Amino acid sequence: MIEMIILSLAGILLLVCAILIGGFGKIELLHSYHYTNMADSDSKAYTRSIGGVLFLFALSCFSAVGVHAFTASAWWAAVLLAGFAVSIFLLWYVQKKYNGGIIG
Questions:
Q1: How far is CA 59 from the centre of its chain?
Q2: Range of 95's domain?
Q3: Which residues, at least 6 apart from 28, have a Cβ–Cβ distance to it below 8 Å?
Q4: Residue 26 lies in a domain
Q5: Does residue 104 form part of some domain?
Q6: Full-model pTM
Q7: pLDDT one-digit tens code per residue, 5-38
């Protein structure tokens, strides 16, 4: 039960970050090396993409909590890991596209 509370809180935190970064364009919430090599014209597209990926991370957390609540099985871990795997790949793709690499 405590793991579901922690996952819910993590999902809320990720959702707030997704809204701030993706919706309001708060690029300063990210570390500067994530957008060092990025063109200024790509700033809006980059923040929207990162916000979308963070939203997917949050959705993975909420989906895992929902699966656990309705099935009471260990499938919640598979849902969480699958969502995180897709999210990490998309995060890598966005970083590669706009910054040239993960660190810059």
A1: 9
A2: 2-99
A3: none
A4: yes
A5: no
A6: 0.89
A7: 999 999 999 999 999 999 999 998 988 877 777 8
